[in-house]
């Protein structure tokens, strides 16, 4: 189940990374998050909580477009469902 959640999250993060209307620092945070989720040697809950903290911080960025903020909120809610 966690892998399905990570797959959905990765698709959303990829979309954010490819969206040139999103500021570069936010695209970079999406890329960093995607890299963290790909580290299979870490526990799923640790990967999820690390990404949640990164994305939670950038979701409050005043320069983030509304559509990107909504996508990040979707990612956050998806990652909050990740369990051991």
Automatic annotation (TrEMBL):
SUPFAM superfamilies: Ta0600-like. Belongs to the UPF0147 family. This is UPF0147 protein ASJ80_10515. It comes from Methanobacterium bryantii.
